[in-house]
Amino acid sequence: MEIAVIDYKGGNVQSVLFALERLGCQPTLTADPEVIRRADKVIFPGEGEAASAMRELRAQGLDKVLPTITQPFLGVCLGMQLLGTHSEENDATMLGILPFEVKRFPKLPEYKVPHMGWNTLQRLRSPLFEGLGAEDYVYFVHSYYAPVGDYTIAEAEYPAPFSAAVQHKNFYAVQFHTEKSGPVGTRILENFLKL
Amino acid sequence: MLTKRIIPCLDVKDGRTVKGVRFEGLRDAGDPVALASRYAREGADELVFLDITATNQKRATLVALVRDVARELDIPFTVGGGIGTVADVEALLMNGADKVSINSAALHRPELIDELARRFGSQCIVVAADARFHEPEGWQIYTRAGTHNTGRDAVQWCREAAERGAGEILLTSMSNDGTKDGFALDITGAVSRAVSVPVVASGGAGSKQHFTEVFQNAQADAGLAASIFHFGEIGIRELKEHLRQDGIPVRL
């Protein structure tokens, strides 16, 4: 299976590559539109800041390529947020593949920002989460979130519900770091590779 | 529900794990990659590697270690110890570190925190603060592996670090470190209330009850310890079961 991991100088992609290697895959790190279009699966990792990530995607022409992908696609963390239309993080205009607007977590005394650590997934509704339930924890690190909508396929609470995962056609994305979420995260990656 | 995190800390020197008592008298406590994998299997929520290598080979050794750990480990880990430049941080993140902690360099030039947060995002920039209690001044911040008193107030420095873009504060009480008498609840609580980012409490853990106290009475978001885990005095799973019985949310 050809797995393209999108390289847009967006931060730590090595963890995603290692997680795929632990599953016996040999992913290709690439920004080449041809390699991306040819792959069986496309993974879009992300860390860092939204506006500069979008600048990098535009510089490489990937903002035009990614919305045209037809094979199973998995966005991770910032790679999920970038699928929305807009982010409050430095007023960034995003890819617009999904109709959500990314917002900053409100300042509340008991709730530190970033939302950092292990949290449970709620209201799972996708084959991406086959074999998982409400007792399973995944690892989050983020200060911005996508609200719950029709596109939501899993929720988490901090303290209000937000989108832990979203889907539109072949575009799947998770807010948490599935590559860093222990055996639960590994299961989600395996489920994605089976789509 | 977001859980409280339990974080074993591995002090590494020349690629091996060591743990000092009050920053002195180092003992060999094993191979970092093997220890890291064991902790991940036992339910550790994250790991911290603090590099205390002082040689010129330091950076290359640390990058190689980070790569080895990242290849094996499926939970997040932070790397710290003598990290001073944007290039240092970039090399560690690109090789698989999830977060990088900075300490002396941030106190020497606080703008470094802003630069790193802008470049890599706050989520991967941890500011490690080593504090020691003095009469009558209170808690003061030390640098250079705990050898130099900056004279800066601990709460005030942690607040500045968070405002400049640190995504997490790793607060070590040097007055408690190695004592096994419990975490420094007063300064941990004061810092936790003063900053809006997560606070990791470190220094002094000797019993399961000490973790309960630091979560219930000092609002820590995570508890870090080394020797009690390395020498098998407390198992991660039994610690988490204890915390759950005390009503503290943990991942089991």
UniProtKB/TrEMBL annotation, chain A:
The active site is at C77 (nucleophile), H177, E179. SUPFAM superfamilies: Class I glutamine amidotransferase-like. The keyword Cytoplasm applies. The keyword Cytoplasm applies. GO terms for biological process: L-histidine biosynthetic process. One of its GO terms (molecular function) is imidazoleglycerol-phosphate synthase activity. It is found in: Cytoplasm. Gene3D superfamilies: 3.40.50.880. Residues 5-193 form the Glutamine amidotransferase domain. Its EC number is 4.3.2.10, 3.5.1.2. Pathway: Amino-acid biosynthesis; L-histidine biosynthesis; L-histidine from 5-phospho-alpha-D-ribose 1-diphosphate: step 5/9. It catalyses: L-glutamine + H2O = L-glutamate + NH4(+); 5-[(5-phospho-1-deoxy-D-ribulos-1-ylimino)methylamino]-1-(5-phospho-beta-D-ribosyl)imidazole-4-carboxamide + L-glutamine = D-erythro-1-(imidazol-4-yl)glycerol 3-phosphate + 5-amino-1-(5-phospho-beta-D-ribosyl)imidazole-4-carboxamide + L-glutamate + H(+). Keywords: Amino-acid biosynthesis, Cytoplasm, Glutamine amidotransferase, Histidine biosynthesis, Hydrolase, Lyase. IGPS catalyzes the conversion of PRFAR and glutamine to IGP, AICAR and glutamate. The HisH subunit catalyzes the hydrolysis of glutamine to glutamate and ammonia as part of the synthesis of IGP and AICAR. The resulting ammonia molecule is channeled to the active site of HisF. Heterodimer of HisH and HisF. This is Imidazole glycerol phosphate synthase subunit HisH. It comes from Hymenobacter qilianensis.
TrEMBL record, chain B:
It catalyses: 5-[(5-phospho-1-deoxy-D-ribulos-1-ylimino)methylamino]-1-(5-phospho-beta-D-ribosyl)imidazole-4-carboxamide + L-glutamine = D-erythro-1-(imidazol-4-yl)glycerol 3-phosphate + 5-amino-1-(5-phospho-beta-D-ribosyl)imidazole-4-carboxamide + L-glutamate + H(+). NCBIfam families: hisF (TIGR00735). The keyword DNA-binding does not apply. Its EC number is 4.3.2.10. Belongs to the HisA/HisF family. GO terms for biological process: L-histidine biosynthetic process. IGPS catalyzes the conversion of PRFAR and glutamine to IGP, AICAR and glutamate. The HisF subunit catalyzes the cyclization activity that produces IGP and AICAR from PRFAR using the ammonia provided by the HisH subunit. It comes from Hymenobacter qilianensis. Pathway: Amino-acid biosynthesis; L-histidine biosynthesis; L-histidine from 5-phospho-alpha-D-ribose 1-diphosphate: step 5/9. InterPro entries: Aldolase_TIM, His_biosynth, HisF, IGPS_HisA/HisF, RibuloseP-bd_barrel. Heterodimer of HisH and HisF. Coiled coil: none annotated. One of its GO terms (cellular component) is cytoplasm. The keyword Lyase applies. This is Imidazole glycerol phosphate synthase subunit HisF.
